[in-house]
Amino acid sequence: MINDLTPIATSTRADIVEIRIREYLSNKKLKTGDTLPTELELAEALDVSRNVLREALSRLRMLGLIETKKKRGMVLSAPDILGSFERVLNPQLMDENTMKDIFELRLVLELGMADLLYLRKTDKDIAELEQIVKKDKNADAEEFRISQEIAFHGKLYEITGNNTLKRFQTMLMPIFGFVLSNSHHSIKSGVSHSDLVQILKNGDRDSFSDAMREHLRPHIEFLKER
Amino acid sequence: MINDLTPIATSTRADIVEIRIREYLSNKKLKTGDTLPTELELAEALDVSRNVLREALSRLRMLGLIETKKKRGMVLSAPDILGSFERVLNPQLMDENTMKDIFELRLVLELGMADLLYLRKTDKDIAELEQIVKKDKNADAEEFRISQEIAFHGKLYEITGNNTLKRFQTMLMPIFGFVLSNSHHSIKSGVSHSDLVQILKNGDRDSFSDAMREHLRPHIEFLKER
């Protein structure tokens, strides 16, 4: 499709050096904790100035791929895979298609997490959910309704016990909020937060899965208009 | 939990300048296409050297947050939200917990995507899936089996029509492959790729959802051991 074509970005020297170093790490099969050549060695091998090299290294440091250790010099580190993602997630700078993609992604995650919930839920989790839904009946004001949405669904992500999933959701929250406050739902769901908690407490995985789908139905219907 | 505590990273001047500029963009509610102050203005306002400023700007350029336009100078751009994520996804540099998180994330996505599939599947998609599963019966060799897994499940992501989801999956593939080739499943699934295609073709969303869960059951059982 022609709208998948994006202009070729003009590469700076730092772009190229950054790519070369990443290729080098990959090809050499270097692992976390391994030492990198010195700045001088790298600059000579790549035939670039120290300034350009430092710019590229600064980027890799930002991504958490390298760190400088006392006495040992530069070593490879396990990057925080969501750290750089977090840096660019700004709803104001996001195009509409990406926003919609992310909103759908949220629905897919919540429709698919029942197994993890049933595998890892504890009595304490259920008690916390019950506390959260108690406040639902006061949720008339739009702003309060959104904060209740975030508290309830956020707690579900937490119960999955999957730290990457949980952090992912924390980052995407501003976008969910943005989409929620811009959507007008004439369709009402027949399943409330409170119903979901009761099923998670006493019902089985399949009933929960069906109930969650019914709970999210207004959003799923909304997708059909896309 | 104490294992959630990570050492406080030592910040360089470029780290701080990068954060300040991102805060500035956010606070000023700048949008895509808006012009940034010049390098000189920024260096003076932040009271830092041009070198440090350039290092920070280089990082933002790498993230796709700013670009330099002829005659207009630096402008804000819509970042490629997955671009920087892609840069750090290297299974060799990933710790075991993150790998497991990502493997679970994949299961959650595939268990939750039935609605998108039923909303967007076309006859052409089904025909392509049928082509893919034809080769399944030859999939004795481990390596070929993994490539069939990737082809089949990859096509499902494509059918969702969600570009972010699809790219996400492409990036995570090396990790899925890594986990797959390291896992030993004594449990066999009762539902094959070919069964799934037939249900997607002729069955309803609920039957597909149940069948997908049965197809992924060996992996779900594997989670219980975690």
Automatic annotation (TrEMBL), chains A, B:
Gene3D superfamilies per record: GntR ligand-binding domain-like, Winged helix-like DNA-binding domain superfamily/Winged helix DNA-binding domain
Residues covered by the HTH gntR-type domain: 11-79
Pfam families per the UniProt record, alphabetical: FCD, GntR
Keywords: DNA-binding, Transcription, Transcription regulation
GO terms for MF: DNA binding; DNA-binding transcription factor activity
Domain of life of the source: Bacteria
Annotated protein name in UniProt: FadR family transcriptional regulator
Organism of origin: Sphingobacterium puteale
